[in-house]
Structure formats: C-alpha cells, structure tokens
Amino acid sequence: MLSRSFAALCLPLALCSCSSSGGSVASNPGPLVDNTQWFPSNKGEEFFGPPRDDSACEVTPIDCEEYFPWPEGECVQFGPNPSCVAAYVPECLDSFTVLAVYTRMRDDRVPLCNWLTLEQPSLRALRAGDRVEVRARHSQLTAPVPGEAHIAFVIGDEQVLDYSVTIPTDFEFPDVVWAAPKDYPAGTPLLFHVDNHGQNEYMLIEVNVLPEASE
C-alpha cells in the first residue's frame, strides 16, 4: 500500500494551503467530502468518455479479512506488508483520512483497476462564488510506457479537476481552487475518477470549501 516513509516526508508539505487571496465569503466553509463514504458509480461518461475496451476494476477487496468491511466512518491503518489488495480504500495517513486508489494486483501482470469512478453526495451547500480546493496526489507512475494517467473531480455539472500526465513521471500533488459559478445544494453528486493501469497509486487528500481569504 502507501509508502510510509514517503508520506511522512512529503504529505505535510502538500497539505499546507497554497490558495491565492481574493474571492467571496464562503457560505459554509469546511469539508465537502467524507473520504469514508465513496462508492462505485457508472456516472461521468459525459466528462470522462466511455470506458476503454480493456477497462476493468475489481471493487471487492481481496484477502482483506483483517480489515474489511472497512470500519464505518473511520480510516484503515494497514500493517507492514499487508496481504490485502483493494482498488480503493479510506486509508489513514498522518492525521488525514485519504481516499487511496490502487491499480495493480500482487501479480503485476493482472490488472486490479484501470478505470474507476466513485461517487458521494456533497456534505454542504455551495453558493455562487464560493471557492473549493481539491487536493490530490499520485505516486511515481511507472507503467505502461508510453501511457497516460488521468485524475478528475466533478461537482454536479462541473469538472473541477481535470489532470492528465504522461507516463513515466515522478510523484505529483495536483491541486486546484475552483469558484462555483452558481448555487449547488447539499447532496449534489460528487465524482472522483481515475483512468490508468500498471503499478500505480492515486490519492484524493481532501476537498474543502474555503473561508474568506485574508487580506
């Protein structure tokens, strides 16, 4: 699963706020997602296109009896060298609960998940002008070569994050601040999408409605 040494060194840097000043007062600042509440979805074709002919995703965890079912409302803390193989999991990382997406089986010749869309309803309403920050991460991407990885995040009818990168590449922390063009009620569908295959790992760190920016 996630490299603990990498997480300890790099994640705190990624979690510091990098937002620019300006923007309106958020109607209700705070988390927009709960990373323990994602579920597989067949929505999103208008944003991501149809699944490729070779797309596949085993969403049922394999050899995870020690951890699965995941504890309700809590993150999963894996021990060293776990046998558990899961396409997506709410994983403990430092003080955060992150959504981790994995693409490979223990045998790298067998794909675990190369096309995955997850969904949940938004935790709070958005007002036109509210600023939302989406923070993601991917590991060093090593396969296939040549290839391309794609991470996306959707709020209602708007694709907020649309990140693509050519493989191979080093680890990266895609980050975007988006201003809502209109009001969105609490419960608006949210989508997180990963499109890739090979020995790669992805993460949604957090999605927050930002407070009023300081002058």
Structural write-up:
- The protein is mainly beta.
- Helices cover 7% and strands 33% of the residues.
- It is built from two helices and eleven strands.
- It has helices spanning 4-15, 45-48; strands at residues 30-31, 39-40, 88-93, 96-102, 115-121, 131-138, 147-155, 158-167, 175-179, 189-195, 201-209.
- The strands form two sheets. Strands 1, 3, 4, 6, 9 and 11 form a six-stranded antiparallel beta sheet that branches. A five-stranded antiparallel beta sheet has the order 2-5-10-7-8, with no helix packed on it.
- A hairpin with a 2-residue loop joins strand 3 and strand 4.
- The longest helix has 12 residues, at 4-15.
- The radius of gyration is 17 Å and the shape is globular.
- The model is unreliable at 3-9 and 16-24 (pLDDT under 50).
Residue ranges: pLDDT <50 for 5 or more in a row? Answer: 3-9, 16-24
> Mind telling me the C-alpha Rg?
17 Å
Largest sheet: 6 strands, antiparallel
Look at the helices and sheets and give the structural class: mainly beta
Q: Count of DSSP helices?
A: 2
Terminal CA distance = 41 Å
Strand and helix order = HEEHEEEEEEEEE
